[in-house]
Design brief:
By secondary structure, this protein is mostly helical. It is 60% helix and 6% strand. A two-stranded antiparallel ribbon has the order 1-2. Strands 3-4 form a two-stranded antiparallel sheet. A hairpin with a 2-residue loop joins strand 1 and strand 2 (31-34). Helix 5 crosses helix 6 (109-120) and helix 8 (141-163) packs parallel to helix 12 (214-233). It starts with a helix and ends with a helix. The relative contact order is 0.08.
Length: 236
């Protein structure tokens, strides 16, 4: 009986040790290593979402204006904390390049600070952090995609409103029915004699689920509703 209890307790201790070891294991440089959490800097989910939209890293630090804008880092410079702004931008830039090259969201502090001094004194880094986001010369694929979707959605909405009222498209104000009627992420109803090209999905499943296009969809819904109200006021 005593031996069974000892084996049981031993198994529990081994299991606990294994769990603790996994908790302190992070994927760094594509390798799973045991590290002290205090020795690692990890990217937040917000940062990863921003990283996915940035242009490819290059020697001119072309990603910096958008990185600064999307992470709202310039707010530090507005409060007079110029050194904090430059440091935060350099750190975020290093994390982005590391994530882009390795796919890892964790970076050893020792490695980060080895790179930090070189980055923050680089003349291209200094030049890019002074460039306003609005003056970026080349749009990213992500923003081009959003502009394309907005244009396609507007054209489709205008075409729908030629033959259907706002209430008909939305079942008297349902935003979900609005999205379905415009086939934003597929058309769940029978096409009957409708033109299939007018009912092709405007967004992929991943694009729709990302939430990145929600604001455009919401604005289109409000615009259509505003057109209805305007028509009522004008006696249409």
């Amino acid at each position: 009986m005593g031996n069974k209890l000892k084996r049981k307790n031993s198994s529990k201790l081994k299991a606990k040790k294994s769990r603790l070891q996994k908790q302190n294991t992070r994927k760094v440089n594509n390798n799973s290593v045991d590290v002290d959490p205090d020795e690692v800097i990890c990217c937040s989910q917000e940062m990863i979402s921003v990283f996915k939209r940035l242009p490819k890293p290059d020697e001119n630090f072309s990603h910096l204006p958008q990185l600064i804008n999307d992470l709202e880092l310039r707010s530090l410079s507005k409060t007079g904390e110029i050194q904090d702004f430059e440091a935060a931008t350099a750190l975020a830039s290093i994390q982005y390049v590391h994530w882009y090259l390795t796919g890892s969201d964790a970076l050893l502090k020792e490695e980060l600070f080895k790179i930090f001094d070189t980055i923050i004194d680089h003349h291209e880094f200094k030049k890019q952090i002074l460039k306003p986001f609005s003056k970026i010369e080349h749009e990213t694929d992500f923003f081009r995609r959003k502009k394309q979707f907005k244009k396609e959605l507007t054209n489709r909405l205008n075409k729908r409103l030629e033959t259907s009222s706002f209430d008909e498209l939305t079942s008297n104000g349902s935003k979900l029915k609005f999205e379905m009627s415009l086939a934003i992420n597929g058309y769940p109803f029978e096409l009957d004699d409708k033109n299939p090209e007018d009912y092709q999905s405007l967004l992929t499943d991943d694009e729709y689920a990302s939430g990145e296009f929600d604001e455009i969809i919401h604005d289109a819904f409000l615009d259509a509703k505003a057109q209805k109200i305007k028509a009522l006021i004008n006696g249409g």
